[in-house]
């Protein structure tokens, strides 16, 4: 943290006065990043206990309105005290960037503790997982404090096509902290809501197609959807083993990279493993960035609109930073790619879900449901309890009754692979692109995640502006498998050049 940091300056003046009031702590922690918090820990201006207490207070205050958190960890203060003790003893483990930092996990990421893991559904309330999810093991090793579980679209939006995004039986409808009526997008809704509203600094979400990138964009935060397989999915309630990925959702690119480092396997003693090495303000020079205007800029044709002006300015900014923009590119099969049923994506999900969810439920130590058929029966019996009767469970039922699933899956996956190779992947290679850039909001631009989904490619979204109603929208950088370093350079360079994000306003 620089000597000009507002956090350091205010803390220093407070210490001169000889006291640190609760009001001042709240002011300082609001919007604080890991780069603010760790120096405050080191200088003994803040403890992990105080930080957890602040977030618990904010959750109590804001969550009844926003419904971004399903439950908090009853052991969070105990874990904070342990982190403080390790830091005081100069334990080597306290050197990690996430040591003593609270984190919220999407409610489909298993924790072997007093927290439930329910995918937002009463059907799994009280179930017992056999072990921590793989990413949670890494977070605990890094010293992160598991603060609680974030709400989510129930069953990652797979229960029914009619289930509103951000709705789950256990918590109800999540709400956007910028414009409460605007919607949350994607299934990692609570992770986005909670970070945006300062109920936590960092969180984890999961994505099958859009569930990290979309809620990050509409909540004005940074989301990283990693290459499938880069982060462990063990212990995560599945949708599609081919496409599921776990990634960070944070307020800054740096914070997101710190979290990604932890869950991928960063070694403090080996700098070559640090994603942070790609956080370079000059990292954009000479990079080739592709622009596909149809359909991703389809609603940006009105020259006078806020979004059009914003993205014209953003593209100019990228040029000024040394990016080579390759504009007006076309993906020949784009209409097939964004057709959820015609591409084969829907059929692939239906065929994959039943064996994947049955395997997950079977390995639970304790559960009232053990199969997809059990889930369907539970929902029929308790739909009034979950307040989900009106939405039904058509997708569950379609997956359960699907015949010839293995053959249909083989055909669907072959088609998805082919159209990805002949579309997005061919475009990137033909034009020697480092990445593709698109807007990202509720409109056609949200299909950017579908380009990346079919074959497990990575993407990062960064805040890009606010429409006339105050609803956030993002900018998305997507690349081929394993290109996270380049995407981090794009995202960080753009973020540092624009500094767009602002705290939520809670407009009705």
Please tag this protein with its features:
508 residues, alpha/beta, Amidase signature (AS) enzymes, two-stranded antiparallel ribbon, globular, disordered N terminus, Amidase domain-containing protein, Amidase_dom, AS_sf
Task: Summarize the structure in words.
The structure is a single chain. The chain has 508 residues and is of the alpha/beta class. Helix content is 40%, strand content 13%. The protein has a domain of 264 residues: Amidase signature (AS) enzymes. The strands form two sheets. The chain has an eleven-stranded mixed beta sheet. The chain starts with 5 loop residues before the first helix and ends in a 10-residue tail after the last helix.
- The count of DSSP E runs of length 2 or more, i.e. the number of strands, is 13
CATH architecture of the domain at 6-269: Alpha-Beta Complex
- Along the chain, the helix and strand elements come as HHHHEHEHEEEHEHEEHEHEHHHHHEHEEH
Report Rg.
22 Å
Mean of pLDDT: 91
Query: Strand order, biggest sheet?
Result: 1-3-2-6-8-7-12-13-11-9-10
Number of helices: 17
Oligomer status: single chain
Domain Amidase: 51-487
Pfam families: Amidase
Protein name: Amidase domain-containing protein
InterPro entries: Amidase_dom, AS_sf
